[in-house]
Amino acid sequence: MMPDSPVISVIISSYNHENYIKDTIRSIIRQTYKNLELIVIDDGSKDKTWERINDLRAVCEERFLRVIFKKQENKGTCTTMNELISLSAGEYTFGIASDDVADERAIELFYNFLSENKEYALVVGENKLIDADGCICYWDKNRNITYDRETAEYTSFSSYLERVNSAGITFDSELFGTYETLMLGNYIPNGYLVRKAIYELIGQYHTEAPLEDYWLMLQLSKYARMKFIRETTFYYRWHASNTIKNVSRVQDMTRRTYQCECKLLLSEKHKALFQRTIQYLERHYKKMLLSLGFFEIYKTRSLEYKYMCIKIKNTVFKFKYKKYYIF
């Protein structure tokens, strides 16, 4: 790495992770990439997360070019992420949740790629799984922890996402991170490096789109490419209070994020992207539409109507009887 390499901002929104936040920050301290600033906002934690953060203040001020630790009343992830971005001074941002851990080479590896590939705005790598104690673990078919790699259904978080993503793509595909495939659901692993300049194009996070990581992927994919690197760069912690374990909450957040995205996609600015997305989704779902017996009717409808029908596929395509069909 050259001594004049750019500043990279590591941003952390913390909330009720007193048992994990020190591991998270220490993993950033150990990064082989040296020109880092660290910005942490505690979003109204009810436990001792803020105290744990401040335990590391002195070592962080010695390690990083700039350190900002801030505590606030709870404002939610989207508002907090907007403030983290606004406070950052780096050319790139590396976001990490306050319960996860970054491999020590992650940021350097990602920077080396983005610095040589200007058409890409995001790069991410293999996500291994760790348990509440930080030990490597795996998943069985129901995403329960197992420590037997030989019998595990999924050996990493990213391998799980690669196998179950609705678009059916491998992460080495040229389709990785494209808008059309992401409209079928978010499959981008955690712990990614992003060119900060992309935020000038996509704007701020919206509270109307509460699934902030998915919103970011959808907006970014409209303007630039993403890259998956098959090297371990991140450790996703699986513990009792992971957000994705609250299925009803995640479903509601996904629905609201889709609704916000629909408004953007139906604008004149994204007309060509909208038409391309409809064509992709139609190809993806044609067999299903034909099997339900109404593809010919569906083809006669407006683009807007087709889009809305496809986007509520989870409540339409599960119906078994024609009296429930809405086409």
TrEMBL record:
One GO molecular-function entry: hexosyltransferase activity
UniProt cross-references to PANTHER family, sorted A to Z: GLYCOSYLTRANSFERASE, UDP-GLCNAC:BETAGAL BETA-1,3-N-ACETYLGLUCOSAMINYLTRANSFERASE-LIKE PROTEIN 1
Segments forming domain Glycosyltransferase 2-like: 9-124
Highest taxon, organism lineage: Bacteria
InterPro entries in alphabetical order: Glyco_trans_2-like, Nucleotide-diphossugar_trans
Name of the protein in its database record: Glycosyltransferase 2-like domain-containing protein
